[in-house]
């Protein structure tokens, strides 16, 4: 089964690439995968940050009001 690569509007057969082309393709695939992992990590960290901010707001409100607000 040949892998097809789409670049722009054109589709290419990866089995016809030179060894150098295959090496570049592997680097491109690695880079794409790593970027996706970092995007996922960024989303996760943003959610954690938002949660910490909300918890901090609740803590400050509890101190101001004199009681603890919990879920």
Keywords for this structure?
71 residues; 1 helix; mainly alpha
Structural class: mainly alpha
Strand order of the largest sheet: 1-2
SS element count, helices: 1
| Largest sheet composition | 2 strands, antiparallel
Q: Mean pLDDT, nearest integer? A: 90
The succession of helices and strands, N to C, reads EEH
Question: Based on DSSP secondary structure assignment, what is the total number of beta strands?
Answer: 2
Radius of gyration: 24 Å
Can you give the helix content as a percent range? 55-70%
Shape: rod-shaped
In terms of DSSP E residues, the strand content is: 5-15%
Cα-to-Cα separation, first versus last residue? 54 Å
Which segments are poorly predicted (pLDDT under 50) over 5 or more consecutive residues? Answer: none
Give the oligomer, counting copies of the same chain as homo and different chains as hetero.
single chain
């Amino acid at each position: 089964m040949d892998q097809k690569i789409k670049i722009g509007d054109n589709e290419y057969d990866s089995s016809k690439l030179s060894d150098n082309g295959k090496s570049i393709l592997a680097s491109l695939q690695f880079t794409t995968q790593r970027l996706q992992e970092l995007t996922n990590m960024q989303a996760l960290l943003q959610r954690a940050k938002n949660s910490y901010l909300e918890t901090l707001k609740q803590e400050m409100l509890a101190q101001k009001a004199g009681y603890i607000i919990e879920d």
